[in-house]
Amino acid sequence: MRILGFGTYDITKHPRVGIIFEGLRANGDEVIEANAPVGFSTAERVAMLQRPWLAFRMVPRILGSWRKIIRQARRAGGNGRWDAVVVGYLGHFDVLVARALFPRNTIVLDLLIFAADTARDRGIDSRWKLRLLELLDSMAIRCADVVMVDAAEHAANLPRAQQHKGVVVPVGASSEWFDAGGQGVARVPLATAPLRVVFFGLFTPLQGAPVIGEVLGQLAESDDIEATMIGQGQDWELARELAGANSHVTWVDWVGPDELPTLVAAHDVCLGIFGTGPKALRVVPNKVYQGAAAGCAIVTSDTAPQRRLLGDAAVFVPPGDAKSLADILRQLSVDRQLVSELRQDARRHSSTEFTASAVIAALRQCLTLDTQVGPEARRPD
């Protein structure tokens, strides 16, 4: 198949669409990208939702990116030559342009998240803002022929009339994480060395960073557990306050995407998410896929999508339960054989389930059907 990657997505910040393209290429498909990132972070986008008068800052940059993307697409082959046009993550507006440019092509939207759902999770409660974002979600979904989501719970949230478009495509992990994991698993830590625990993220509410901070505060006297907390965001200050004076915690503002896999792979345990909000109960975060590929033991919240995805290859604790998480880390700090087994289980499971080739299987099947008989084949009677 011949695929056009289209949009303002930024693979360095959100690797999801890059993994999709990696998987398509690994299966022999030709993928050509028309891409010009806008340059705004997720946090900046959320800030504009909270203060709409700042949104004007986005308009010139979005228009400039679209001009570049359209020129790239035309140079690559123009209209009518693509088996599918894949619009990358955060492409709610990009998909409108793609639909206008390619009216007869199969348009695939990597929805991943609902704008209104994310706004609610980050504390936006204005009724008119949420309604506007719901309309944006609906409009973007209607413009697409195929809508990729990362879990069955998100597919169920698609509008009833549009649910036939949904395809579950797990986030997976890029080859860089598997490469780092191959080196990390080979490392045999000394039984007397501290248990090394890592968390990385944007400290959003669904991640439950304050729960981790509370745990670190409880473990302040545990010399055999060291933690690395990477990133900053909404809940960073609270998490650090709750961690107190734990001298065994290293706080790192952020690590570049080229360095992050190796750094994570040097740890024994990768923490997932522990939030209790509705969105936290529906998602499987990037860090779970990436930490498993890097060969870390995974400890995360006991939610339906995470348990379904990870099976026995992780340790689960109730969402928001700091005591249970602290107890698990104490247990792992004294049972290094269990840590080794969990690391091997996570690595083995990820090697079959989380590779780029594996996660795009359902998408390729859907696109192959569209290529043969057209996107209307999936539409209900």
The gist of it:
The chain has 381 residues and is of the alpha/beta class.
What does the secondary structure layout of this molecule look like, with pairings?
Layout: E1 2-7, H1 16-26, E2 30-35, H2 42-50, H3 58-76, E3 84-87, H4 94-101, E4 107-110, H5 115-121, H6 127-143, E5 146-149, H7 152-155, E6 166-168, H8 175-186, E7 195-200, H9 209-218, E8 225-230, H10 236-243, E9 249-252, H11 260-265, E10 269-271, H12 286-293, E11 297-301, H13 304-310, E12 315-317, H14 322-334, H15 336-353, H16 356-359, H17 361-373
Parallel strand pairs: 1-2, 1-3, 3-4, 4-5, 5-6, 7-8, 7-10, 8-9, 10-11, 11-12
Helix pairs in contact: 5-6, 8-12, 9-10, 9-14, 12-15
How would you portray this structure in words?
The chain has 381 residues and is α/β, with parallel strands linked by helices. The protein folds into two domains: 2-172 and 356-378, Glycogen Phosphorylase B (Rossmann fold, 3-Layer(aba) Sandwich), CATH 3.40.50.2000; 175-353, Glycogen Phosphorylase B (Rossmann fold), CATH 3.40.50.2000. 46% of the residues lie in helices and 14% in strands. It contains 17 helices and twelve strands. The chain has helices at 16-26, 42-50, 58-76, 94-101, 115-121, 127-143, 152-155, 175-186, 209-218, 236-243, 260-265, 286-293, 304-310, 322-334, 336-353, 356-359, 361-373, and strands at residues 2-7, 30-35, 84-87, 107-110, 146-149, 166-168, 195-200, 225-230, 249-252, 269-271, 297-301, 315-317. The chain has a six-stranded parallel beta sheet, with helices on both faces. A six-stranded parallel beta sheet has the order 9-8-7-10-11-12, with helices on both faces. Strand 5, helix 7 and strand 6 form a beta-alpha-beta unit. The protein is globular and about 60 Å long. The chain starts with a strand and ends in an 8-residue tail after the last helix. The model has no long low-confidence stretch (mean pLDDT 88).
